[in-house]
Amino acid sequence: MHYLLLPFFSFFVGIVVGLTGIGGASLITPMLIFIFQVPPSVAVSSDVVAATLMKFVGGFKHWQQKTIDLQAVKWLAFGSVPGSLFGVGILHFIKHTGEYNLDRVLLHSIGVMILCVTLSALIQLLLLTFVPNLKFPDLPKFDLETIWGRVLAMSVGAILGCLVGLTSVSSGSMFALVLISFFRLDARKLVGTDISQAAILLFFTSLGHLSLGTVDWGLVLPIWFGSVPGVLLGAKLCEIAPQRPLRFVIYTLLLMVSYKLVSPV
């Protein structure tokens, strides 16, 4: 399919991201693979680079608004940045050894990541909808004033960063879950902190993917042209659109996409 249609599709993906908060990588990478027949290695690298600009724009806006927990961003980044570069290093190893097919490995990895992220989000959505009074035991809070709390934050950041470096998926969604569960951030600072740490993470991940030689700027630029205005429009529509039905439909779609990625025909 001709890449001239890519800004059009990216615009609608941007609307979904702005409208529901669902991560762009979970939507754009499969779109590139299935609709535009882009090899998975090129799709992942191009998506990482494309997402970096959007995260930096959003992060700068939240920094101006002072809706960022800088301590959480700092200690997560100390783990996620080396973790993501390690993930990219794994891709370098797979590519240069030639023992495994990089595109096939990535196809399954992306599918597994989207499946895990979507299932966790869908279960949470269903519980909030049908069992709103259900209470779970509180998870331990990371105290960033202590060495142990910082070590835990860096460790979680490293694990998730590695997964982002490998697949481009979950730079926002899984970190948001961590920020809610272990940092107990209020809603005012959650989004800004999530976007800001993702901007730092994706910047260094982008450098790693550029070194792989699998970034296609003919994909990156059209994604920027379409997704940025789409996100802005989606954010406006978010004020009036019903969130839970929309999220349920999109999560169901992502489950089907992840199944297709894990078990390609």
How is this structure best summarized?
Belongs to the 4-toluene sulfonate uptake permease (TSUP) (TC 2.A.102) family. With 265 residues, this protein is mostly helical.
Secondary-structure map with pairings?
Layout: H1 6-20, H2 25-34, H3 40-65, H4 70-97, H5 102-130, H6 147-167, H7 173-182, H8 187-212, H9 217-237, H10 243-262
Polypeptide structure, described:
The structure is a single chain. The mean pLDDT is 82. The chain has ten helices and no strands. The chain is globular and about 45 Å long. It is mainly alpha-helical and 265 residues long.
Task: Fill in the keyword field for this structure.
265 residues, mainly alpha, 10 helices, 0% strand, globular, cell membrane
Provide the structure class: mainly alpha
* Whole-angstrom Rg: 18 Å
pLDDT < 50 runs, ≥5 residues: none
Q: What gap, in angstroms, lies between the N and C termini?
A: 19 Å
- Our estimate of the beta-strand percent is under 5%
Coarse shape: globular
Q: What is the H-and-E element order?
A: HHHHHHHHHH
Number of strands: 0
Helix count, per DSSP?
Answer: 10
Average predicted confidence as pLDDT: 82
Quickly count the domains: 1
Report on the biggest sheet: none
**Helix share of residues?**
over 70%
